[in-house]
Amino acid sequence: MDELIQIIDAAIFGDINALYREMKAMGGSFLVHARSLVAILMVLYFGVKGYGIMVGDSDVDIMPLVRPFALLLVILFWGTFVNMIEFPMKVIENTGEGITENTINRTNELFQQRQVAYTALIERINSDADRYEESLEASEDNAWWDIVLGSIETLNLRLDALRVMVTAKIKYLMFSVIEWIVLAFFKACMYLIFYLKALIGGILVALGPFAFAVSIVPGFKDAYLKWISRFVSVLLYGLLGHLAINTAMIFVNSALTREVAFLDYLTNEAPRSVFISYAVQPNITETSLLVALIIGAFGMLSIPIVSNWIISMGSAGQLGGKATNALKSAGTAVTKAAI
């Protein structure tokens, strides 16, 4: 059970963060191609707009002409733009990470207390077996008729003690295996969320300049808004992951606290009937920890859905559309005033 003490491996999180940084660095290789693409699209865009103004098919409007330059500036200073989006999200995530660290330390302490309680319980099982062994040896010093009359009862007591000891150890071994599997599933779900954040976030950073480049084309004018929406949604995986970990640990700590109290009761206060009942059949106190870990794992898997609820393309598109319309109206007013 010693491997259960470490719920979260900080080295794995370090590897995941290193993966994200490496993918961001690799994304710089695509910036040259994105800048070439945006230059070609700007030439075509201004050519079409200029031709329309020359033949009188469209009016002179500043905002449609300024928009490609704004997108070009974002691509030219892509690293700064990405850092501006990441900064507030990192601050919030670091706060959640600090809370998670304290919660995990508490969980590790409870796992250690649980291990101590299990050790004490096993000692009681062994001492009960030794006690019945001593009673059998003491009966050998009695008269032969006492041995004959009490041999069956003594043998039954010894077999009963042996049955309790063997059953308890087999049950402990089975629960250890099941618990290891459930805890491994919980860890896998937890690491998966942060891995998806690093992987998808790195891909978005690497290919994001192309989304801004194609936004110059009228048919893809909302591509940059979709990118921003998805990138912020992925960045939320870290914050939501820490919130999910803390929520899961609340149930895990509650289950561990009850289990430690129950094990202490079995070791120090429980009568033999209760002790035997615990040894030969499962109980709710033991399974509550497994249920808490499974629920926490599925809570981790729901983070992408929750993140999409918080930051969806619909809300980002509406906000971007309103901002664009407001700037367009202001540009039109300035143009008319200048004329």
Mean pLDDT reading: 75
Distance between the termini: 80 Å
Beta-strand percent range: under 5%
Number of strands: 0
Number of DSSP helices? 10
Biggest pleated-sheet summary: none
Low-confidence stretches: 1-5, 138-149, 313-324, 330-339
The level of helicity is over 70%
Helix and strand element order: HHHHHHHHHH
CA-based shape: rod-shaped
What's the helix and strand layout?
Blueprint: H1 10-27, H2 31-55, H3 62-76, H4 78-139, H5 144-214, H6 223-268, H7 272-280, H8 284-301, H9 303-310, H10 313-338
Helix pairs in contact: 1-5, 2-3, 2-5, 4-5, 4-6, 5-6, 5-7, 5-8, 6-8, 6-9, 6-10
Provide a descriptive summary of the structure in words.
α4 (78-139) packs parallel to α6 (223-268). The chain has one domain. The N and C termini lie far apart (80 Å). It contains 10 helices and no strands. It is mainly α. It has helices at 10-27, 31-55, 62-76, 78-139, 144-214, 223-268, 272-280, 284-301, 303-310, 313-338.
